[in-house]
Design brief:
The protein has one domain. Helices cover about 55% and strands about 5% of the residues. The chain has helices at about 25-50, 60-80, 85-105, 135-160, 170-175, and strands at about 15-20, 165-170.
Length: about 190
């Protein structure tokens, strides 16, 4: 059974829709921080993916999918899509787990272990010698604190209620009628 979707929102004539929580400095700062953290995470994931291509054990498609997901989330968050913030936090927890396991070697060999003699150097996506094992280990290790920050900022942004909207009289129309201001009940 398909649920009926309500009609598009109609704004009363002479009124405009405002989003007061989006005007706050804290909301703007949080939005910018979430987008910056998502983009930095994509940069680190791509550096590890391209620089350690031959040693990724088949996770290359997952890395690219994760990067695309983070880029899409960043684009929507930049447009004030509050609903994607919990998804970003959930993906960050998963990536945090993966980066801690990969950098510490809890499930086998870490990047730092590969710096020892007897391990082949990683080859890049483009066929040449990739990044060094210690560099890949540090990049992988740097992903973890970024994901912790992403969880904190994303959930903080979700709590800021960017989606709250009010219909208020259009100031341009009020200026032409003498500027009287009506009270609009909170929705």
């Amino acid at each position: 059974m398909v649920r009926q979707v309500g009609p598009a929102r109609q704004v009363r004539p002479g009124y405009v829709v405002t989003y007061p929580n989006r005007q706050l400095t804290s909301s703007r700062t949080t939005k910018a921080a979430v987008v910056a953290i998502l983009l930095a995470s994509v940069a680190l994931m791509l550096a590890v993916t391209v620089g350690g291509w031959s040693q990724l054990q088949g996770l290359t498609a997952v890395n690219f999918a994760w990067c695309i997901a983070y880029l899409l989330i960043a684009a929507y968050v930049w447009r004030w899509a509050r609903g994607l913030l919990p998804i970003a936090a959930g993906l960050a927890v998963l990536l945090l787990t993966i980066s801690v396991i990969a950098s510490t070697g809890f499930a086998g060999t870490s990047w730092f272990d590969r710096a020892r003699p007897g391990y082949a150097a990683a080859h890049s996506l483009f066929g040449g010698v990739g990044l060094g094992a210690n560099t890949l280990g540090i990049l992988t290790l740097l992903i973890a604190p970024l994901q912790v920050l992403l969880v904190v900022f994303a959930m903080g942004g979700f709590a800021q209620r960017w989606n709250v909207e009010y219909e208020v009289p259009d100031e341009r129309l009020l200026a032409g009628r003498g500027g009287g201001r009506e009270r609009v009940p909170a929705v």
